[in-house]
Amino acid sequence: MFSKVLFGRYVPTNSRIHQLDPRAKLALSFYFIIIIFFANNWISYAFLAVFTLAVILGTRVKLSFFWDGIKPLIWIILFTVVLQMLFSSGGHTYWHWGIFTVTQFGLINGGYIFCRFLLIICMSTVLTLTTPPLLIADAVESLMKPLVKIKVPVYEIALMLSIALRFVPTLLDETQKIMNAQRARGVDFGSGSIWKRIKSVVPILIPLFISAFNRADELATAMEARGYRGGEGRTKYRMLKWHRQDTLACILMLVVTIILAGVRHY
Amino acid sequence: MTAIIRATNISYHYPDETNDVIHNLSFEIKRGDWVAIVGHNGSGKSTLARAIDGLLELDQGEIFVNDQLVAQENIWEIRKQIGFVFQNPDNQFVGATVADDVAFGLENRHMPRNEMIEKVNEALEMVEMSQFAEREPAALSGGQKQRVALAGVVAMRPDILILDEATSMLDPEGRESILKLLQQLRQRYHLTVISITHDIDEAAMADEILLIDDGRLVAKGVPNEILMQGDRLIELGLDVPYGEKIKRALVKEDLQTPTEYMDSNRMVDWLWQKLNLTK
Amino acid sequence: MVVAEIEFNEVGFVYQPGTPFEVSALRNINLTIESNSYTAIVGHTGSGKSTLIQLLDGLLKPTSGRLLIGQSQIDANSTNRQLAQLHQHIGIVFQFPENQLFEETVIKDIAFGPKNFGKSESQARELALEAMELVGLNADLSERSPFELSGGQMRRVAIAGVLAMQPHTLILDEPTAGLDPRGQREIMELFASLQQQQHLTVILVTHQMEDAAQYADKIVVMNHGEVVKVGTPRDIFVDPIWLKNNHLMVPKTTAFAQRLQQRGFSFDPFPLTVAELAQQIKQQLESGS
Fold first, then answer.
1. Structural class in CATH, domain C4-237
2. Which residues of A touch B137 (CB under 8 A)?
3. Looking at the DSSP assignment, which residues form a beta bridge with residue B164?
4. Predicted ipTM of the assembly
């Protein structure tokens, strides 16, 4: 099931959104998530939804594929929304049973929360869909740079993040191999009681930890052999470049904000 | 003084073990030589390589690299002169892309960005990986990752290249191409090469072979001398070079064969002459 | 023990079908593997070998076509239960199998498989001890932690863990990778004797053409997700140009015999091992032909 989840995966369709500076994309995604919370009526949500849809289309990833990729997450949202609806009060009461009540305000709020979550998930999926993890790490480093002044070890954090991202596919691959080996030895991951399922994780986790520690040890030795002595004074090979299109994207977001402010009072 | 590396009476044991991994070893390596350090798994040969690069602290003895004692004070100076390629291609790939990985060592040296780009491009060209510059490691084969590791070394311009079983995890195609590349790099950059290996064909490429067993130096000499000692090689858990393998099979068939070392080429020539004599 | 024959019938496999990540790994595979045979599967990295062996062990199921393994048929609609049954009868030694070890003691790790397949504690222990003997591990090691052992010994523990399930078919994925020459020789001899004495069907995936030539009685060549040739080692290795076109290394003995042929020797049948080569050389030198 999780192989279908799109969040966190990069799909190189090379659209205009792919070509934007990762700093612009990261900052604007955050900004968008914040302004979602300023939407206060159906028109403002509809406006933001249309904008999000336009961005999704702009990634040139097939819409059906995108939808399949976020569908598994929608169930999680629906679950929280239903809980929210059952425990809220205000307005006309439609249904009441024990501690559960479904009210008019509860329904409306639930609907808003659903929209908010959906928009947030769509936009962050767009970010990871169009930006390789490496560039996201670079953007984080670049945006965090001012923190060096207050002694935050930004370079070390960035290197850690970059190494961690670089080893994600390696370790996923390793996990798959170990799982295959243990399945071949009769471990059944998919069935049995909860206790049995938890127990079946042990034969994966132990080899995985051992392998990860070995890798970390070898990597540390290799880094030392290549002269790594900490982040201080290290120069940087990769440099991000800000283009006109990035400024344009920022202006576009400003326009979205203004329109949103307008429709809020509708 | 032509020795680029000198080791005198070095010993080392791992903190939680009693036996020495390397025991009272002494040897010299000549500048510009290709030296193979050969032994079975667990014979101590990898530990020896790490000792040369100052990656572990010896119990006893001294190692000199370019006449400098390998010690805590000048460890970074020593490491500048040595490029190291390890066995597992995955576990030495630090960068998120090929170009980033090649640049890693240069970044550690605080090299200005413009100079760095030049060095990275040149190194990638040398190992024929330029078109892969922006690829992530997951998209590369083992052989390609080792090429990147070599580019990272070349970019640093060391005098010495240590290969710690650098080809042992590769498929035969990958191994062959890396060995070919090593010959080119060695010529071009006048490298002294120390290759730690149990592959006897790789050892045959060397100017000198050090045979290691149980942490001790058991033989030392030019390949011709070492590689003709088939029984001894097998006893040490190693293989016999192919030409010698044929010689041994012919001896079993009661054929008279020359006593000196025969590689495949010489064996073909010799058999051809022999065939012509019988005609 | 019921020994099964394996048959691939128009088998195909596609990873992540219906997504932009879709990759077709295998196409139109038709293949029969007889019981108690020794088959080598060769092909360059990415030719589909590893997908093929995962299908064989029920770790994946075909997206098209069907597999017949003994009495059971596996196709796209097979249930997990059906697939799980395969695991017991088909043992698979993955590349670097020591990476799957996890128990506190050697004996517990080896007994892990049999226990999963419903053997009692004491039966599993019994099977584990037998498997240790088969792979040449001293019984003294049984209470040691597998992580204290040498690389070669760890590999034997992992192999014993597969043998303890008493499979009728053993799949080996590059079983000698990373071992030194002595370790390689010993492990390959071990599998050859298992095939002959325990009557196992052995399927070897390898890059080492010398091993394929020496041990296998049938070789399957894969390229781009298809089986391009099936034959005896002699059939396969007689044509070095064809081998190169399919990204395969030419075995040393083949290459050497070929060079001698250019210098006036002639070989019939074409030698596969150094011993065969030496015999034929001797004959020709003595007869002076």
1. alpha beta
2. 166, 170
3. B196
4. 0.92
